[in-house]
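Support request from a user on the community tier.

User writes: "When I paste my C-alpha cells into the form, the page sometimes reloads and wipes my input. The last time it worked, I copied everything first. Here is what I submitted, just in case something in the input itself triggers the reload:"
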C-alpha cells in the first residue's frame, strides 16, 4: 500500500529520476529557464528550491551538500555566485512555472520553468494600480461625485470643440450686396 506517499516517480527508477532531476537543475542554473513538462517542472521545483536556499549560506559544508545533489562544478560556481546574490533578499519561491501548450505527439502539458529574479519582463513591467472601491454605503454621495466629474469632462470637451470649430470654419465676409463669400477662392 502507498498510503501517504505523495512523491511523483515520473515513470522512472530511482537512479534515473535522480540523474534526470540533477541534469535539469544544472540546466536551469546555467540557462535560467528551461522548457519541460508540468510534472517534471513541479518535481524540479521541489528539488532545486532547497538547494538555492542552501546556496545563500556560502560555506564549505553547504557547497558540499549542494555538490552531492548536482555534481557539476560549473553549476555550483554559478549558483553560489550570481544566483545566490540575486536571491539573497527572497525568502522562497525562487522558481516560476509558466504553462505554455500541450505537446503535439502525446498531448503532455508543456511549461517553462524559470528563475524568478532573472525575468526582466516581470521585474520592469509596471503593474496598473487597481481602483479602490468606495466604502460609502449611501448612493447619493457617490453619485454626486460622479455627476461633478461628468460636468468637468463636459466643460472641457465643450471648450475643445469651440476651439476646433474656430480653427475649422472658413473665413467668411459679407460683400456690399449682403451676400456671403468665402475668401481664398
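"...and here is what came back when it finally went through:"
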Amino acid at each position: 500500500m502507498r498510503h501517504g506517499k505523495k512523491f511523483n516517480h515520473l515513470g522512472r527508477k530511482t537512479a534515473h529520476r535522480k540523474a534526470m532531476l540533477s541534469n535539469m537543475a544544472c540546466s536551469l542554473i546555467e540557462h535560467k529557464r528551461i522548457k519541460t513538462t508540468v510534472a517534471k517542472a513541479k518535481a524540479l521545483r521541489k528539488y532545486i528550491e532547497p538547494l538555492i536556499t542552501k546556496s545563500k549560506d556560502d560555506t564549505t559544508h553547504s557547497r558540499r551538500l549542494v555538490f552531492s545533489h548536482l555534481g557539476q562544478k560549473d553549476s555550483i560556481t554559478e549558483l553560489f555566485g550570481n544566483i545566490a546574490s540575486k536571491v539573497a533578499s527572497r525568502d522562497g519561491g525562487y522558481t516560476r512555472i509558466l504553462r505554455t501548450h500541450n505537446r503535439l505527439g502525446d498531448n503532455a502539458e508543456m511549461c517553462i520553468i524559470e528563475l524568478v529574479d532573472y525575468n526582466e519582463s516581470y521585474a520592469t513591467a509596471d503593474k496598473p494600480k487597481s481602483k479602490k472601491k468606495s466604502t460609502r454605503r449611501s448612493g447619493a454621495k457617490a453619485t454626486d461625485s460622479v455627476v461633478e466629474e461628468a460636468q468637468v469632462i463636459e466643460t472641457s470637451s465643450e471648450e475643445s470643440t469651440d476651439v476646433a470649430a474656430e480653427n475649422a470654419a472658413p473665413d467668411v465676409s459679407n460683400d456690399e450686396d449682403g451676400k456671403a463669400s468665402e475668401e481664398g477662392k
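Agent notes: The reload is a front-end session timeout and is unrelated to the input. The radius of gyration is 32 Å. Helices lie at 14-31, 38-55, 60-70, 73-86, 120-124, 139-168. Escalated to web team.
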